[in-house]
Every structure is written in structure tokens, then in C-alpha cells.
Amino acid sequence: MSGMSQLLVEDRLFQAPKAFSKKAAISSMKQYKAMCQAFENDFDGTWARLAKETLYWKKPFKTVLDESEAPFYKWFSEGTTNASYNCTDRIIKAGLGEKTAIIFESDAGDVTRISYQELHERVCKFANGLRALGVGKGDRVVLYMAMSIEGVVAMQACARIGATHSVVFGGFSAKSLEERIVDVGATTVITADEQMRGGKQLPLKAIVDEALELGAKSIVKNVIVYKRTGSETVPFTPGRDHWMHDVSAKQSKKCEPEWVEAEHPLFVLYTSGSTGKPKGVVHATGGYLLWANLTMQWTFDLRQNDVFWCTADIGWITGHSYIAYGPLSVGGTQIVFEGLPTYPNAGRFWDMIERHKVSIFYTAPTAIRSLIKASDLNPDTHPKNYKLKSLRLLGSVGEPINPEAWMWYHKNVGGEKCPIVDTFWQTETGGHMITPLPGATPLVPGSCTLPLPGIMAAIVDETGQDMPNGQGGILVVKKPWPSMIRNIWNDPERFKKSYFPADLGGNLYLAGDGAIRNAKTAYFTITGRIDDVLNVSGHRMGTMEIESCLVAHSDVAEAAVVGRPDDLTGEAIVAYVVLKGARPEGEAAQKKALELRNWVNKEIGPIAKPKEIRFGDNLPKTRSGKIMRRLLRVLAKGEDITQDTSTLENPGILEQLKHAV
Ligand code: 6R9
């Protein structure tokens, strides 16, 4: 991160604006501390009280936290509930049926509004349709869709009938999709004919068909297709394929929810880890929804007249917690946006905030950095050209936000009056973990500040011992929390090893990030991943995943992938490749590099495409044959190697790998 050096000495402090605090749900540090104290005094009792106050339980729970099979923790065990009921019926019963649930804006700018009553109706009809196709409790349903009301309806409908959904981001390739469908064992896939992005029609259904041909067809019985563009060329297999509107058409508007146990898996979401195979992160219904709801109230301070906009895609955890579930569970009004921040120009976000009077805006540092750059190039797209007065709160998620981007966001988007919540969390944590509370916490650019009440975050050394403030270490969570990952689908051993490793004592949740707490304020700053996971534009990518993909190419003998700091994307992917034939040079090298980049694009998806490829006769290795990734990282940054390379088997190779082709 280019701002890292400043970040560590950052001492600017921004107090919560008085006007904000006055009305905020949590309005002072005193109140924050009292909430934390409540958990210290009575951990189970406090969670139990919040769970009862927040969610509708069909059958009440007795046990709060069951640690008998730790680290496979269970929360609210005997309770039964339903996520869809909590996100629609309960809101309508509270008198908000006519309130707008979703304001959808298409890529081209068409706007559709839908009330809670209408959302409920569409969820119920589609849920009944799914049941009619034989989908029921415990079945897995894969979604491969773009941003749409239908995407949210599909997720909610699965939840309503107790089917476990697994959303695969629409940018993943047929092969990635196939792997996920097979791993999760989905019998049904929901997709769209095509998606619209930046004025272009891009395929979805055709990619689903390709994934089925690759092998998934042995398990998939139904493919349900939302007609988005109506393109004539989209393949359709009668019998197996159904239009989404036909599935819902003759169904009743009433649909009795499937009352599931609190621990019933609401969804599985695949994310990258440090081995080649993505991990299917399992989330449980009760605890997950509780935290999605509470963080809407605590972190976003959501009030009934707010217009909330989270710009994430439903293919990522942020889109699950802060589009599909959180905002609906509190009866909020939210924007769902199909398009790109740069289409038709880089003023799109600001224009939409002005037109829809957005009051809470939640986006990623990558988006901010690219819009800063765009507004430098084309001043017409600068936020100062738009009326952004409706904004009262800004948020950031996905990667560290560098202080320069923070200051720009604060000044130019927030008009120096909106707090910024820099929310640190992960696919595995289900919701926010370390974040400012906008009405209480004094802000420091680049710091996610303090853990939310109930979250026992800490920094330890390699043996699990606490580190004093001011010294960096490994970020852990010392006690379970309701929305935590429950398991890795099909791989409980990997779950234990990845998240509750024995060297830390087996009872600390390992986030996979390094962090440091400020000696004076005890604020947390995340210093980046400590494993082989990269963060490119806020998307998690495993280096091993890309390496296995590269070596699967028939010309590649060996590959090593590292990250390099990048001003725009946070990190950029650099791949070192040894070909089976001779090392290419000049134009041949450029051609090969392009071919390999396209290969990764096709095999995994555009987000995994290396920015740069370098060819060597070999890779720098120790005498025991281990690739020295540390050195490759130095070379990727364009720096000279100052470390001792005497343990290298082949030091001469470094010279070859210094430059991009
Ligand atoms: C929600 C989400 C998780 C990883 C996480 C960390 C990085 C996320 C951050 C942040 C610094 C923040 N990360 N938020 N780093 N400050 N506010 O992004 O989930 O895709 O699973 O990524 O992202 O490295 O471990 P996910």
C-alpha cells in the first residue's frame, strides 16, 4: 500500500460531528464502553437479549452458545426462525409494507422501485415455484446472476424454503462455476440470460451451459433463467431450463416459510484461501442474520428515512450482508445498482447519490481511488459538480483505505461533515468486526479503530501470546460471535486448521491478517494478509489458485505468483513462469505473456488475471527446493535485492526475473 508509511504515523483525529451524534443510536464512547462492558459482565446473557429483541423466533432458543464441539460452535441451538420472514413479513407486520425496499437502477439508468409488500409477493411466488420444482430444505441452489431485484428475490426465496444458496460472482469463468456447483452439490442453478455492464451485453446462461458440460450436468436438474436482455441467441434446453417468470407465474402469493433451526446453513460462499482450492464458507441462519441486522443499526446507524447504498455485488459477502439481508432485516430503503461506476462516465456514483438522495454510501477504496484518478483526467466527473447534501455517512470496505483516499472521500464526497466507517471484516466473519461507530468514535484516516461490542479482537504473536499495543502481530478473535463461519463445506479438517490452528492454542479465531494497535489510542490498523492471499481491488485471490491455473497450461512447467503494491488496485498480481520449452524473449515473450494472461482470465475469471508475467529458466529456490517468494516480491516491486541470497541454489536466475516482458 503506497500510503502505508504515512498510515503508521497518522495522527489526525476527526471527532464525531455533534449533529450526527445527537441522533445516533450509539452516541458516545461512554455508551460504546458500556455496551462492551455488558458483554464482559455477561457474554451469553447479552447476546441472548439482543437475539430476542432483534429477530423473530418461531420457537425460542434455550442455549445461547454451545461450545461442546468447539471450534464447531453453535448459537441459539433450539431456536427456529426464517431469514426471509425476518426480512419481509416482520417488516410488513411493523407497518412498513408500502415502504420502498429496493430502488433498482439499471446499467442504462432505468429506475424500478419495489415496496416491501411487492418484494414479499415476489419472494413468495418464486419460493412456491422452487418448491414445485422439488427444491426444499437443505438442497443447495447456485446463483450466477448480475445485480438485479431478481437476484435478491432468488436469495430470499431460497432462504424462505430452507434451501442453502451459494452465489457465484458473475465474473467467474465456466470452470470456476463448475467447481463450485460440484463442490456444493447444487441441484438447481439460477441465472440470467445475459447481464448488462457498461452498455455491453455479457453472457451468463451460455457460461452456465458450459459449466454443465464441463461436468456439473450430472447433478444439476433445473436451470432457472431470469430474462434480462431477452437476447434471441441464448441457449435453452427445454425440460431442464425454465424461465424465472414462468416458475413464479401461477404460484400463490402466500408461502409458509420453512422454520429452520438457528444453525441451518443459510448459505455457502466460496472464497480464496492459501491453497489452490477455494473454500466454501458456511454461514448459519440465526447468528448471521442477527449480526447483519445489528451492524446495520450500530455501524450504519440506519434510520427509517435513510436511503442506503452499498455498491458491492451480491456475489461477495458484502453484497450478502449489506444488500440481500442486512438492509431488508431493518426495513431500510436501499439502492441496487446493475452498472459500473465509470459508465456512462466516472460521475455515475455522484449522479446517483444526487438523484436518489442517498444518505448512507458504502463502497471500496479501489472504487474511490479510480474515481479520484478519473476526476483528475475529466474534471466534469468530480463530485463537486453534484449535489451530495443528502449524504450523512460514508463507509469503506474490502481493503485498507490509504489516508490520501480517505481525506479525498471525506472532503469531496462527505463535504467534511460525514463520518467515514472503515469497516474491517471478512467472508468468514459474516459482518463487521472492527469499525468506528459513526456517532461516537473519533476517526483516524486509515484505521478501522475499535472492535464492535461483543467482538473480542486482539493481537497475538506466533504462539498465541498477547502483544502489547504499539507492536504488530497476528489478528485474532478470542471468543466466538454469532455470525462467525461455521465450517468449510465438505472440509471440517481444513476449517479447524485454517481458522483455529493448534500453534495458537486451538481456540483463537485466526483472521489471516496482520495488525497493530496504536500505543496511545489502542486503535487497530490492518497491515495486510499474513498468508498467501492477495487483495486485488478488494477481491480476494489465492496465489496458489493462480499458480495451479498457470501450470495447468500445456506449455507451463512451473509458476510462482506474488502481489505487488499498486496505487489503484491495492495489490497487483505478478506471475513468474518457467515454460517447458526455451525461455521466450522479445516479441515472443510478449505474445506468450498475453496468451497466459488470457488463459487465467478464461480459467478463473478477469479478477485473477496477472498484471504482469515474467519468464525465467527457473525460479529462485533454496537448496531444499523451496521457491523464495520473499525475493520474488522484492523483484516485483522493482527493488534491488539486499537480502542474503547465499542459500539460493541458483542466484543467477534473479537477473532474468528483474524485468517485465
Ligand atoms: C468484507 C470483505 C477479507 C479481507 C480481510 C482483509 C481485507 C477487508 C478491510 C480489509 C483493511 C478494511 N479487508 N476490509 N483490510 N481494512 N476495512 O472484504 O471480505 O472478501 O473475505 O476479504 O479483506 O485482508 O482479511 P473478503
TrEMBL record:
Its cofactor is Mg(2+). Pfam families: ACAS_N (PF16177), AMP-binding (PF00501), AMP-binding_C (PF13193). It catalyses: acetate + ATP + CoA = acetyl-CoA + AMP + diphosphate. One of its GO terms (molecular function) is metal ion binding. ATP binds at G398, E399, P400, D422, T423, F424, W425, Q426, T427, D513, R529, R540. Residues 545-626 form the AMP-binding enzyme C-terminal domain. Belongs to the ATP-dependent AMP-binding enzyme family. NCBIfam families: Ac_CoA_lig_AcsA, PRK00174.1. This is Acetyl-coenzyme A synthetase.
